[in-house]
Structure formats: structure tokens, C-alpha cells
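Database export, one record per block. Field names are fixed; values are copied verbatim from the stored entry.
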Amino acid sequence: MNDSLKPTRPTTAVRGAFLSVAMRWTDRLLSLLSTVILARLLVPGDFGLVAMAMVAVGFFDVLLDLGVGAALIQHDHAGREEFSTAWTLRLAQCVVTALLLVALSPLVADYYDDPRVSGVLRVAAITVLIGGFENIGTVSFQRNMELGRDFQFVVFKRLVSVACTIALAVALRSYWALILGSLVSRLMGVGVSYSMSGFRPHLTLSRVSGIWTFSQWSLLTGIARYLNGAIPRLVLGGRANAAALGTYAVGEEVAMLPTSELLAPLGRVMFPAFAAARHSPGELLRLVTLAQAVQALLAIPLSLGVVLVADDAIPLLLGQQWTNAVPIAQIVALTGVATALGYSPGYMLTVTGRMHVLCGYTWAKTLLLVLLILLVFRGADAERIAMAGLVASAVGLVTLQAIAWKALPGFGGMRFWSQTWRPVLSAAFMSAVVSAVSVALVDAERVLRLIAEIGAGALVYGLSTLALWRAVGRPLGAESYLLERVRSQLK
């Protein structure tokens, strides 16, 4: 292996989990800060116009995505040639994506009936092309569990993006601030990737067969996963206007912040850890079950918390012009629970070589979403489209649990319920208390009411979960794991 790809200071699993969550939350909190500021400088139509363009950018990007990063992490002996082949494939993907965006931009603009989309797509094509030159050597940070360096790389790019976008918004007061900010961030990211990693890729396809064996299923799964998230925006953008789509996009972003945005980064630790245990079914079962239990312990209260405080939080953070985003955020927040609980079984299927099963499941879930939007939740109403996503995610989670149980005997079923009933019951207590606080403080200042709701909810959930866990004999699980980690950190 090339010396620049060897680990220098690997991170332990516990510290890795902390850094992954800290990285994602720092990234997302910076993004939220940017959204809060930009929401007061721009109008919903500006966000909607960019969302229209990003649907097309994301589609072509994922259509050609070979999943080379995951392939390198999965590869037991990836070296210089494997990394260079992955870089070559990713660069080719970005070149083709950029050309398609430029060529098809008039058609996309016609679909949305907004000629401004064409210009936005052309600039976005340049951004995609620049991203193709980013150093593939940064993947070794995750592969080698050097998550401290990974943290620095991701957060620096976000800081640059936020600073540039806000400065441009103040100067331009236009949707161009969102597009040009992304362009500057991508340029800086390429430069930083070469300064942080000593690896220097070269053009080659010498290891393409080994990477493609894994990537072909990753590609098909990625397309379905992207469509599952993009179809609601695509349908709403075609049926309604830019303002309606902007409201939906911002409501969705705010709703997903405390659930999937907290738990998604754990995948940076789960994927390598699951891969290391894939030849030991007993250890893999323990890790997957524990990971999902921790996700349930966090995702259930956070998701329900968004539902309970959205009426106060969104107008306070974004302004009164975003009030229509409240019901959308409440529905999408519940969808986040199903999304978060699906991470562990999804990673387990990947590392055990069942990418074809995961691919089939993801496409079936996407097809269900399309049928729900077209046949059940019809109309241009953003709330109906969000509700279709909630139903599809709930059905999908039940199906994924059944698939994972078959792939890893002992997973799911009563084992899953034994880990989740305490968070569910504690969340019910929390909901009752927060609702009572909201009614009691109905005439108080909104910011004071919001602080009281969040404080009361966190306190009740924490105490009730701890009490229920102690009442059943302190079983091994998410509660004991997190308490042990806290004690370890305090020492």
C-alpha cells in the first residue's frame, strides 16, 4: 500500500462515533445557521428555484455514481492502483454529468416552466466538473478510521460554503448566492483535499473490474435511493410553483436535522465496524442490534420533539413567511424515524454481500412512493406528498426488518421490540408533558415557550427512560452502552 494511504493515527470506535456525530452536527448546524440567515435575506421562490435545478443535478450525478468510495472501504487490500482507478472513474462520471446538465438544461427549464433554471444548471455543471478533481485519497481517512482528519476536511468545506453564500446573499439578494456559494466551496474543497492527503492519483482503469463488482449494485441502489428523495420535489415542482417547492425543501431540511442528520454520520463508524465483523455472525448480530437500539433511543424522541415544537420553532428561526413549512416539517420528522432505524440493517446487508437484496428493496420502496403519490395522495398539496413519503417509509421499515432477519438470523422481531418499547413509552410521557407546557404558556413569549418545551421534554424523556430501564433490571442495550460511554469520557 502507498505510504500516503496508510493509517497514521487511527481512531477508536467510541471516539470515532463521537467524531462522526460531532462532524455531522457541526456541518448541519452550520448549514442550519446559513439557512436561518439566508431565509431572512432571500424569499421562498429563490430556494425553490435552486431546488428545481438540484433535482436534475442530483439525478444525473447519482445516475452515473459508481460508489467508488464505498468500494474502496469494502476492499480488503485497496492500494495505489485501486484508488487511482476509483479517482479516474469518478472524474469520468463528473465530466459526463456536467455535459448532460448543459445539454438538457433547456428541457428541464421547460418542464418547470421557468427559463431561469437553465442558467442555474449551467453553473451547477461547472461545480460538478470541478468536484471530479477532488483527491480520492481523502477516502482513506474513513477507511483507516482517521476520523479526526475527516472531521477537519468536512467542516472546513462547510465553513467556506456558509461564509461565501451568506456574503453573496448580502451583496446580491438573489438565488445566485446559493449557486455561486456552492461553486466556491467546491473549488476550496479540491484544494484542501490535496493539502490534507499526500496521495496523488493518476489516470488508470487497471483495477476497474474489482471496483465495478461492488459498485454496480451500489449504483443501482443509489439511483433508487435518490429517486425516493427527489420524486416528491420533482412532482411538487411540476404541479406547483417555486415558492411552494422552496417551502417544502426548507421544511424538510429543518425536520430531518435532529434525526437522520444526527444518526446518519454513525454510518461512517458502523460501515467499517460491520465490515470487520462480517465473518463472525455472532459479533455482527451484536453490533447491528446495538447500533439500531442506540438509533431508536435517540431518533424517537428527537423526531417527536420536532412535531411538538415546530409551531414555535420554525417561525422563530426562519420568520413568519415560512409558517407554511410547519405541517410539512412535522410529517417529514416522523419519516425520519423510519429512515434512521433503517441504517443498521442496510449497512449489514451491504457488508455481508447482499447488495442485490438491498437494491431490490430500495427500488420496491421507491415504486411504492410513486404509486402513493399518483393514486392515493393526489394533488399539488405539499402536505399530501409528505404524507405519501411517511407511509412509504413506514412500510419500508417493516419490510427491511423482515429482510434483515432472514439475512442475519436472530435480528429484529422480539429482539427489536425489547430494545424499543422503553423509548416509545418514554416519548409518550414526553409528548404529554410538552403539550401541557405549551398550553400553560400559550400567552408567553414564543422564545420562552420554546425553551420551556425543549427543556421539559428532554428532562422527562431522560428520566423516564432511565427509570424504565432500571425497573426491568438494567438489561444490556442502548441505555447501558451510552451510560458506560459517558462514564468513560468523564474519567
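Remark 1: Residues 1-206 form one domain.
Remark 2: The chain has a mean pLDDT of 81.
End of record.
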